[in-house]
Design a protein that fits this description.
Elements (H helix, E strand, L loop, with lengths): L2 H34 L33 E5 L15 E3 L5 E7 L11 E8 L4 E11 L6 E10 L8 E8 L4 E5 H4 L8 E6 L11 E9 L5 E13 L4 H7 L12 H9 L3 H18 L11 E3 L5 E2 L2 E2 L1 H16 L5 H15 L4 E2 L2 E2 L3 E2 L9 E3 H17 L1 H13 L7 E2 L4 E3 L1 E3 L9 E2 L7 H10 L6 H4 L16 E7 L2 E10 L2 E3 L7 H5 L7 H4 L4 H19 L10 E5 L2 E5 L16 E2 L2 H5 L5 H11 L6 E2 L2 E2 L2 E3 L4 E3 L1 E3 H15 L3 H8 L1 H4 L2 H5 L7
Antiparallel strand pairs: 1-11, 2-5, 3-4, 4-11, 5-10, 6-9, 6-11, 7-8, 7-10, 12-13, 12-33, 14-17, 15-16, 18-21, 19-20, 20-22, 23-24, 24-25, 26-27, 28-31, 29-30, 31-32
Helix pairs in contact: 5-6, 5-17, 6-7, 6-8, 6-17, 8-9, 8-10, 8-18
Length: 688
Amino acid sequence: MSAFKRARLFFLESLMLFRLTKLWFFFLALFLQSLFFPLDSQAQEKPVLEKFDVYQTLPSDRSLMTSPQFLVIDDFNDGKLKNKRGAPWQSKAPGIGALDLLLDKIDARSAERGYSLKLSFNLSRNEKASFHSLLNRLDVSQAKFFVFRYKLNVAGPQNFTGRFRVQLTDWKHQTVIQDITNMFPPNFGGWGDVILPMTLFKELDLDQLLSIDFFLIARNEQFRGDLWVDEIAFFGFNDVAFESQRDNLVGFPRTVVHARRRARLMDETDPKVFLKGIAFDTWKYFENARDKNTHLIVDHLRLGDAPLAADYTSPTNIAMDFLSIIAAMDLDFITREQAIEKIRNIFSTLKQMRRYKGFLYNFYNTKKLSVTRSYVSAVDSGWFAISLVVVRQAFPKEFGREIRKWIDSFSFNEFLDPENNQLVVGLEVPERNFGNYHYGLLVTEARATSFYAIGKGDIPRDHWWYLYRTPPKAWKWQTQKPKGKFVTREGVDMFQGYYKYGKREFVPSWGGSLFEFLMPTLVMKERELAPHGLGVNNRMATELHRDYALKEKKYPVWGISPAATTSGRQWRYREFGIKALGVKGYPDTGVITPHVSFLALDSLPEEALLNLRKLLKYEAIYGEYGFYDSVNVRNGKVNFQYLTLDQGMSLVAICNYLKGGSIQRRFHRDVIAKRAEDLLMKESFFNT
């Protein structure tokens, strides 16, 4: 062997021996560490954390609730042991030691403001105590940090030998535990900030967090003292709640005011082109404001300084979605095949949703499909049933059999109060508590439900004649004493009453809103089939609304009905109307909603078109998805909000106007509507 080869072999043998020796020392070090420094199975090495003090983004005198960057789990300022999701805080005591969970008048950010959660503990060796609350599948997918503040006092020397941990759990019951003592050692006697990047929880489904737990663990000795926790929240650099919900949707508007589109519409002279352009923009809402996975339309979107994307829906919203898909097909925005696919996707989700005796509950989370309240609404169920009829007529081969099963699965007899032969407003289940309220008037949006239920055979025909045209004269609380007389209809003695406004006669609604008069015309051919009853009354109510707003109140536009209004970050759906046109009467505060002008295309089309053009003079009234929900004509303030209900009514009403009542015709083509049509024909409101 040459000298070169011997040298090379010696080098390789030495290198191998070095590697084996190094490996031996590595395992020896591990053994010694485990022998003298036992590892806590739950302990974690201290990770490298981002340096960002989230609490400094807000002055200490302001609550976290005032900032959209915080999605607050609890700040305890309301003095209740319930988190901001409505779930209680509960503790789990150890087997031997003691534990007490209560609210303490100590706040982590402002001594003058509120409370914190205090845990007094006395743990024996190796014992564990915890406190816990549900998050109800909270969506925090766009949060950047999970944060809270804590303070710890322990008995004896201030050497913390125990462990303090937090655990998040998702809907699949996957958990991630973070050891706070490693990353954020306690500042004994003072508050410390815990700021955990959400990357530490990446193993969880952050779209649906189920619960939060805090643990205190004693190790090799007794551990007693007090722990305070406060200001528990998720933090994002934008509006964390909104951004987390928005990423579930197909799309969201990029701009608030669509000035260029509004200008083009104002210049358009052809009324059909004008309306179809608005319909196309309105349809964009139904294309985008739905969950990407479940395909369910959400209740509302809001733009502007405090954007919102709802995470729930209702049977009426689903009904408006079905009807709008068919309207979009009729208007050539989508093909028949695309419409079928969209409806099929919705049905696939509906099959997964919990129901009560065949009825949908009134509110579902659009991502989780969970029921948010065990309540079933008569009128919402009615609009869902009506939409099924229209879908059946639009696509009999594709959905006929499936819809028959749906329709046969529920009966509106569930809502019929035998004492007065009227429908109750809804049912609390499983108690079947009727409550005290009924849909007792004919002129409300609920008459379409009555019409359907009679046609299907769920309730008797005479129910129609038990609905009040006006309440009896003896009911002194109504806005005016009704005129009229008793008549007999199909064996039922009834009071054929009416009110007067000036010299004009009309049958009132409950609140005097135009929506109550006109919403049923989305599917019912009242103008054609009830020329002496509901048809003439709808026209009269529209004229009275127009004249009240333009002549009496000197408003520039008309159309008073329930609408969404905003105050800061808060919004609510409020009832508006003309008191004199209602039995009870809703208030008028100058809020005008465009959707009733679209409904009025059935009762007063030329005036409705003119009103829509006037509404466009409000510069902020129009966005990417069409008209916003309302404008206050007293101050010009537009509510930058879209509601599925109002978007659906607008789109379907335009379709009926442009396509010869195509949605109405489908409904009346069905055997359910045909069986009840003669009820419309027999009515005569004023020529008694």
